[in-house]
Amino acid sequence: MERRTIGAAALDVGAVGLGCMPMSWAYTGSRQRGEESLRAVHTALDRGSTLLDTADMYGPFTNELLVGRVLKERRSEAFVSTKVGLLVGEQHIVANGRPGYVKRACDASLRRLQTDVIDLYQLHRADPEVPVEETWGAMADLVSAGKVRSLGLCAVGARSARRSGARLHDGTIRQLERVQQVFPVSAVEAELSVWSTEALDALLPWCAARGVGFLAAMPLGNGFLTGTLTPGEGFEPDDVRARHPRFTAEMMAANQPIVVGLRRIARRHGDHENAVTPAQVALAWVLAQGPHVVPVPGAKRERWVTENAGAAGLRLAAEDLAEVAGLPGARGSWD
């Protein structure tokens, strides 16, 4: 697989990463299988998808434990990204950015991941009760201590900004400019896909101008851009899509022209022996947004991991990119 470098430290990763969250968190619980997920992580490393993206809150904790079982055997082959800053309660999630907590949480993540160093430690969300510089300073101390190699920040406030009419990533850029004064940011993780392109306006250019890597979260639109979901099929109550404004039956039907367009491009690039899928076109589009961009599609089955990794070899022509740009914008129930 093509390799890409992210951040000033030139962190080397496979061009397509693996989002491990669906294995333990946020998506249909009845379809989560530990052994199947372990095989998926092993397959990702076999295919060159070296960036494994997890977080302490996924599960909570169980996702790091799962990834740790693979790292125990194959640590040298993996680039490990995990996150800190969110605590999961019975019915709520709260931020905790207190320096003492951050350092204890890192030690706990290291134990669960069965490693002595985390390649990329990301602030999941800033704590409104703690200056972000203090949280980031504690994370920088972890670099000095040799427990962490680099630091990253996850984008914040996406949906609230969309509803208020503000530029989607203004808050994230303000945070980035503050923490950059304390310790260099190596990577930013934010949503970017064919149907969520807001990061192209300001956040991606901010990263490109400063040599900061960009990890594209949800590059397959929570599964919609794969073309494998049926409008009206419904989701289990524990699945985040059951409450997502783009995943009502009406909106899924309304957004089908996006998948139709991806499928049309896929047909131009594939044949019966080497079929190309809408998902691979969607990932290739993300890869085309810059050499510092690494899509991190979530998957929990070997089949999807293999398909996603294959997107690294797909090169979209100018006419393909123009066709994607001409697709209708995604609609949600707020529109």
How would you characterize the overall build of this protein?
The strands form three sheets. An eight-stranded parallel sheet has the order 3-4-5-8-9-10-11-12. A two-stranded antiparallel sheet has the order 1-2. A two-stranded antiparallel ribbon has the order 6-7. The chain is of the alpha/beta class and 335 residues long. The model has no long low-confidence stretch (mean pLDDT 93). It is built from twelve helices and twelve strands. Helix content is 38%, strand content 14%. α9 (256-269) crosses α10 (278-287).
Task: For the structure shown, list the relevant keywords.
single chain, 335 residues, alpha/beta, 8-stranded parallel β-sheet, two-stranded antiparallel sheet, 14% strand
Percent strand: 5-15%
Helical coverage, percent range: 25-40%
Secondary-structure content class: alpha/beta
Q: Helix count, per DSSP? A: 12
Helix and strand pattern: EEEHEHEEEHEHEHHEHEHHHEHH
Counting copies of identical and different chains, the oligomeric state is single chain
* Largest sheet composition: 8 strands, parallel
Question: Strands across the major sheet, in which order?
Answer: 3-4-5-8-9-10-11-12
Would you report the number of β strands? 12
Mean pLDDT over the residues: 93
Distance between the termini: 39 Å
Write a brief structural summary.
The protein is α/β, with parallel strands linked by helices and 335 residues long. It is built from 12 helices and 12 strands.
